[in-house]
Design a protein that fits this description.
Aminopeptidase, binds coenzyme A, about 35% strand, 13-stranded mixed β-sheet, alpha+beta
Length: about 300
């Protein structure tokens, strides 16, 4: 342990696999349930589009952070951890600055990350570093997968891409979501190419009224692969209460038909959508997820 008033010199470098033991040691009690870092460490160190930085004090690893380059212009930061014995000494600040520099040099224009609404320490660090909150997402889940009847929902097809995209361009929910969707706690910009990809993989539910598209839901099954369970997640939900309710019924019925046992619903915190989730028996989590961003100029 180092006395916080001494402000020791902090070095930041790329992580090595030999840092593993020290890192796992200080991550053991990050949260009451432990931490997910030991599960992802080996994968993070191998991934081509990502890098883990380690901060050291007197050559001992005391903090980490992970950066992923998602698209040439955007990076995602995750897994910021400081050894509890070395907090409030500028460790997270030093690693995040290194991440931002690394991203900037590679041409990224924006860095984003997520933190829970009750994580005051992380929020303070982020504000000090010039990050701004850009959207708030709600997580909900249900294992009550029932047979449902929907009325105006269906899978989107390639011919729907232009109208779905046009709908998003004028959508209040898309604006409130900061134009982002999420897969496994990682947020990405939702651009036309992304929508196309989802449609081609039959992962977009559309809702229509007499005037055309008035809602859509993007889904993904990465949770099934990663967590070895029969589950699906919503990555983005858009529409008013009626549209959201109908699309969620369509989704529940789809899951019922193919034997999915759990749905994780992620949506921006838009009241009519959250109300629709509640109506269908989804458990809504507290706290929420706050996505922060910083422009890199
Ligand atoms: C969040 C976390 C990474 C911060 O690490 P850190 O190395 O202590 O952060 P820094 O020393 O760089 O803090 C910079 C500033 O942020 C603010 N800050 C940091 N922790 C704070 C806290 N617990 N309470 C209030 N302000 C805090 C302070 O203004 C601090 O500057 P100061 O100490 O000169 O006042 C660390 O608390 C941690 O590992 N928490 C558990 C995991 C976690 O929450 N990770 C983030 C997930 S998004």
């Amino acid at each position: 342990m180092v006395n916080s008033r001494t402000k020791p010199k902090i070095y930041v470098r790329k992580a090595k696999s030999s840092d593993k033991e020290a890192v796992f040691n200080f991550c053991r009690k990050t949260w009451s349930w432990g931490d997910y870092i030991p599960k992802v460490w080996d994968k993070w160190l191998k991934e081509k589009n990502s890098i883990v930085f380690v901060a050291t004090i007197n050559k001992v690893p005391v903090g980490i952070s992970h950066l992923t380059i998602d698209k040439p212009s955007e990076v995602w930061l995750s897994g910021a951890r400081t050894d509890p014995n070395y907090r409030r000494m500028g460790v997270a600040t030093a690693i995040t600055k290194k991440c931002l520099k690394y991203a900037q040099v590679r041409g990224a224009k924006i860095a984003r990350l997520v933190t829970e609404s009750n994580n005051k320490a992380a929020q303070r660090v982020l504000r000090k570093l010039g990050f701004q909150p850009i959207t708030e997402f709600v997580e909900a889940k249900t294992e009550n997968i029932t047979k449902e009847v929907s009325e105006n929902s269906r899978w989107a097809e390639v011919k729907d891409i232009n109208s779905a995209w046009a709908y998003l361009q004028n959508s209040e929910v898309y604006r409130e979501s900061a134009g982002l969707y999420t897969v496994l706690f990682h947020w990405y910009s939702l651009e036309k190419e992304d929508l196309e990809k989802f449609v081609k993989q039959r992962k977009v539910i559309l809702h229509e009224n007499s005037k055309g598209v008035d809602g859509l839901v993007l889904i993904d099954n990465a949770s099934s692969r990663e967590w070895r369970e029969k589950s699906l997640q919503t990555c983005y939900i858009d529409g008013d209460y009626t549209a959201a309710l109908d699309m969620l019924k369509f989704l529940k019925n789809h899951c019922y038909t193919i034997g999915i046992q759990k749905i994780y619903a992620f949506t921006c915190n838009y009241k009519p959508i959250v109300k629709a989730l509640d109506k269908l028996g989804f458990e809504i989590d507290e706290p929420t997820d706050i996505v922060y961003a910083k422009k890199l100029v």
